[in-house]
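Tokens in:
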């Protein structure tokens, strides 16, 4: 095999591994209604209700609900945060704000004027080594039972 062909083969393997790592980092679980899960593990489109008192900036487990059952929040995007090591709170905030904002088109335009607030959740510095490094973008209602349909443009 020539050196040029070998280089192309190695480059193709590096790209394939990189895509696989990125896919794994952004994969989410699809939980059934009534299941308890962390926000960071929910798939795009998942609706949920908080199961704990949100006394801090972090959220523990949530209860997954059907889109047609009363709920307070829905995942509308998952954004990879491309930092190997935890950079800083400000850098994570900037990357998550930018990435989630770039995905606003995933939200149903018919609720644009009366849309629940947008927010995101990302791993804390202490959890960063465990991965994945993904911001979970959500819409949230002040009423934990205030949403009764999907807020995303996807069916």
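Residues out:
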């Amino acid at each position: 095999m020539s050196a040029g062909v070998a280089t192309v083969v190695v480059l193709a393997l590096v790209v394939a591994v990189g895509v696989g790592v990125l896919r794994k980092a952004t994969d989410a679980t699809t939980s059934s209604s009534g299941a308890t899960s962390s926000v960071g593990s929910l798939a795009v489109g998942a609706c949920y209700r908080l199961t704990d008192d949100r006394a801090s900036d972090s959220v523990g487990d949530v209860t997954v609900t059907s889109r047609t059952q009363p709920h307070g929040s829905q995942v509308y995007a998952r954004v990879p945060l491309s930092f190997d090591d935890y950079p800083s709170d400000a850098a994570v905030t900037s990357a998550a704000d930018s990435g989630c904002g770039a995905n606003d088109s995933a939200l149903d335009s018919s609720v644009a004027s009366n849309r629940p607030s947008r927010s995101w959740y990302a791993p804390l510095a202490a959890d960063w080594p465990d991965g994945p490094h993904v911001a979970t973008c959500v819409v949230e209602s002040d009423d934990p039972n205030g949403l009764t349909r999907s807020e995303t443009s996807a069916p």
